[in-house]
Specification:
Blueprint (H helix, E strand, L loop, with lengths): L5 E10 L3 E4 H5 L6 H8 L3 E4 L6 H15 L9 E5 L10 H9 L5 E5 L5 H15 L4 E9 L9 H4 L4 E11 L5 E8 L7 E2 L11 H5 L6 E2 L1 H23 L8 E4 L4 H11 L10 H4 L6 H11 L7 E9 L3 E9 L2
Parallel strand pairs: 4-5, 4-6, 11-12
Antiparallel strand pairs: 1-7, 2-3, 6-7, 8-13, 9-10, 12-13
Helix pairs in contact: 3-4, 8-9
The structure holds oxa(dethia)-CoA.
Length: 331
């Protein structure tokens, strides 16, 4: 069946909290060193959400920037999708808190949970809704307040994560097709490699779960690392294949920024030209679903993306989930 509409990308925006936590700050909290963190991950600092803020506040700031960039009014938005694993609350959806903050009352609103691949799953979801004609103008946000679910006594994880938000606006179009391709993957046989064990229906909250710090992120770092390299390289190739494009057609790659060594290994495995890879992991660490969209927005601000350039986003995360999409930035 032919699609009713194509998708035009109208704007992007991002927001990170002001507070900076450096590797040297972390040296005072856990037994670690700037040298270890920098050489093993490439991360030098990360942003930490203010006590007075929550995920929907970060999402609001990023969304307002994207709405302004798109030259739209909040009333134009008819669908809000928030990708996050750190919602304001388990119930209701953070997208509903965001709708209220934006006063975007013409929009329906829901969250999706696909960990670090959340934004790319969101691109696929937005594409399907717009192409079918069901919704016309979509606000997609990737937002995380990972510092709220970090075990600050665990050096294996607490040095890795940061907080932030990014947003993109899509609109139905008769002429444009800016989501050139999307490829998604998932493997539920490895759910235990990266999870937040308690607080859900499986392990409800008790005094014991709090005492055992089961409300914080746990990760088998080495295992996640290995699968991430294989699946991100595979996803990068699949999205190119689906778009009938080659590496030469891509102006900029925006990979998930969990670890510089993962990015380097993916670049090597997928045969990508490193000069075309955008990197900001040193500034923010891993912001899960916010990572790729914050990086894309910053790359635009830095003039790394020219009008009508093709940009490929590639990500991998808990689930396990992975994916890639090729976007035409006609902005
Ligand atoms: O994209 C989805 C999310 N994925 C990720 O965020 C990350 C995936 N994994 C990784 O990035 C890496 O596996 C880590 C950065 C988490 C760890 O790097 P690694 O090279 O795999 O180190 P390791 O876990 O093998 O640890 C090596 C050593 C250990 O000491 P021993 O057992 O060799 O004595 C750790 O205890 O480094 C120690 N270590 C640390 N030392 C100082 C672990 N964390 C730290 C730390 N500071 N923060």
């Amino acid at each position: 069946m032919d699609n009713k509409f194509g998708v035009k990308i109208l704007g992007t925006g991002s927001y990170v909290p002001e507070k900076i936590l450096t590797n040297f700050d972390l040296e005072k909290i856990v037994e670690t060193s700037d040298e270890w963190i920098t050489t093993r991950t490439g991360i030098q600092q990360r942003r930490i959400i203010d006590k007075t803020q929550t995920s929907s506040d970060l999402a609001y700031n990023a969304s307002m920037r994207a709405i302004e960039d798109a030259k739209l009014s909040v009333n134009d938005i008819d669908l809000i999708i928030v990708a996050t694993v750190t919602p304001d609350m388990p119930l209701p959806a953070t997208a509903c808190f965001l709708q209220e903050k934006l006063k975007a009352f013409n929009a329906v609103a829901f969250d999706i949970s696909a960990a670090c691949t959340g934004f790319i799953y969101g691109v696929a979801t937005a594409k399907a809704f717009v192409e079918s004609g069901m919704y016309k103008t979509v606000l997609l946000v990737g937002v995380e307040a990972l510092s709220r679910v970090t075990d600050w006594t665990d050096r294996n994880t607490c040095v890795l994560f940061g907080d932030g938000a990014g947003a993109m606006i899509f609109q139905a179009s008769k002429e444009d097709n800016d989501i050139v391709s999307v490829y998604l993957g998932a493997d539920g046989t490895h759910t235990g490699l990266l999870d937040l064990p308690a607080g859900g229906a499986k392990t409800p909250t008790t005094h014991e779960t709090v005492d055992q710090k089961l409300h914080t992120i746990k990760m088998a770092g080495k295992d996640v690392f290995k699968v991430a390299v294989v699946k991100m390289a595979e996803a990068a190739g699949k999205a190119l294949e689906l778009a009938n494009k080659t590496d030469k057609d891509i102006a900029l790659y925006v990979p998930h920024q969990a670890n510089l060594r993962i990015i380097d290994a993916v670049v090597k495995k997928a045969g990508i030209n490193k000069d075309k890879v955008y990197i900001n992991v040193q500034k923010y660490g891993n912001m899960s679903s916010a990572t790729t969209i914050v990086a894309l927005d910053e790359a635009r601000q830095e003039g790394r993306i020219a009008k009508n350039d093709l940009v490929e986003l590639v990500a991998f995360g808990g689930g396990l989930t992975w994916g890639a999409c090729i976007l035409k930035l006609g902005l």
